[in-house]
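User: Second chain of the day. Same drill as before.
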Amino acid sequence: MSGKPKLHYFNGRGRMESIRWLLAAAGVEFEECFLETKDDLTKLQKDGSLLFQQVPMVEIDGMKMVQSRAISNYIATKYNLYGKDLKERALIDMYVEAVIDLNELLMTHTFQPADKKEQHFATIVDKATNRYFPVYEKVLKDHGQDFLVGNRLSRADVQLLETLLMAEECKPDILVKFPLLQSFKARISNIPTIKKFLQPGSQRKPPLQEKDVPKLMKIFH
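Assistant: Same format as last time:
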């Protein structure tokens, strides 16, 4: 058995994508086992691989880890992406939890019924530009460093970059009023491991398309 982490999920972003980002940023190669059918999920459930009967699940260091936040915490700690002390970790947690809130909004946009899509899009733009992005802009200004916390890369930087890029997919000019976030995006995107992950052919997944939704529904419902 190889020492690479093995990721069990469907062939798409969802809640596994941030985990892929963290592993890639840490320069860790990983394997993926895609769920293609309901039977694939049922098999994992029946053989006891899924503690709470759901994915994402990551096989790492002899464990079968579930719950995306727990997996991300473990990876961030293992690969020194979680700050140098308890206070830095607290800041990272605060920044990441808010990023996750926005990420959830972005992730669920494709699943909105046609009559709700416009309102959902407006909510994304409003919360991104009025609630979340101004905070990160101020953090970068006040902290005066290349990174959100301390003076080295953390999971907060990685997960913020992931969400900034998702937000731009939704609305290309969404960062127009946030110059520090624009320079942050360029700077973090240029870190070699992350730059590699952003290249075509990497294990980064494309945005979910509406045509993909019925297939996912067959796996999970």
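DSSP finds nine helices and four strands in the chain.

User: Great, on to the next one.
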